[in-house]
Amino acid sequence: MRGLRRPFDRNSIPNYLAHSTQAEVPERRWIVERRMVATHALVKEYVNLFVNRRAYTVQSFRPHPQRGRHYYYRPTERGSGAALQLNEKTISDHMEGKITIGLYAINPANQRCKWVAIDADYRNAMEDLIKLQYHLSGDHVDSALEMSKRGGHLWIFLAVPLLARKCRLYIHDLASRLGVPVKGSGLVEGIEIFPKHDVIASGAFGNAIRGPLGIHRGASRRFWFYGADYTLEAQMHFLRRLRRVTEEELDRFTAGKALPPNIVKPRHELEPMSEGSGLTRTRFCILDHVGKTRILGKNHVTRCPSCEKAGRDRGGDNLAILVADPRFYLCWAGCTKEMIRAAVGKPIPVRRIA
């Protein structure tokens, strides 16, 4: 256990080496750069392992002009604007590196997940992921560590879809006992646990995470799972051999436990927000008063009503609305909330003081 307290050093762990000798470098580089072919069998296996619902996101090929990040968006059908559904062709394109998709953890039909993913991208993130992986093995829980641009993703697979609430509870409890920081518990940096919600409303999505084995557009490379060769076949064979958590085990791990009180619970998407104690009066929601939106990172992006009224925002992307809580929105051109509310015919009420 003392070794876990030392800073994580990839070179000190043989299974985590990109290559073991200098002579092997050309062969390894050839494997990474050659064209990957996703067979029908590999695609079916990927769907069985990772796909829990048919909604998905796509990572943009071009970076945002101001921020330089390759954001994700939900793809729609040309003409009708209907949301596209994930299919085997899309999965194949992702595995072969033609596109990069994001996957949602929770199926709103049953509030269950096929997997749990722990995302860490801060200083000493890999050390914390290794610590979690080590203690998961003490519960006889297999996990797969995936490389990422700034840290790593730790994946746990389930024998059958299990309740998102219990999946989150298990990881939160383990992280708390190990002193691993969790984002959303009053800390700016820490691990992010997918699923991020206990439940989501019908028609909601939750938060997506980059689908494994594809190409990260921002890094222009694939990020593989440690412990297997850098081919699609070897990677899927490695994942296939991992033991999956059963419902009985998860019930045992979470019995008598509750989420820590300092965990910020994200508001369920599409959940109506009441104002005051009234049961019929609903709070203003900006999403009800704007046109078509698309998702870039953590925000809905759309045309600012105030800018539109002034003949500006021809690109239709001045207004950013926080996905997790639409009460928070911002016009990059400088329009105030008062201006935006007035533009949609819903001015902010002015409190009169007697």
Query: What is the name of the CATH topology of the largest domain?
Result: DNA primase, PRIM domain
Straight-line distance between termini? 66 Å
CATH superfamily of the largest domain: HP0184-like
Name the strands of the widest sheet in spatial order.
Answer: 2-1-3-8
Q: Estimate the global geometry from the Cα principal axes.
A: globular
The total domain count is: 2
CATH class group of the largest domain: Alpha Beta
Category from helices, strands and their pairing:
alpha+beta
- Output the helix-strand order: HHEEHEEHEEHEEEEHHEEHEEH
Helical proportion? 10-25%
User: Could you give the count of β-strands?
Assistant: 14
- In this structure, how is the largest beta sheet organized? 4 strands, antiparallel
| CATH second-level architecture of the largest domain | Alpha-Beta Complex
Proportion in β-strands: 15-25%
Structural Rg = 22 Å
In DSSP terms, counting alpha (H) and pi (I) runs of 4 or more, how many helices? 9
Mean pLDDT: 83
Gist of the model:
This protein has 354 residues and is α+β, with helices and mostly antiparallel strands. The protein is 24% helix and 17% strand. The termini are far apart.
Keywords:
alpha+beta; globular; 9 helices; 14 strands; 4-stranded antiparallel β-sheet; 2 domains; 354 residues
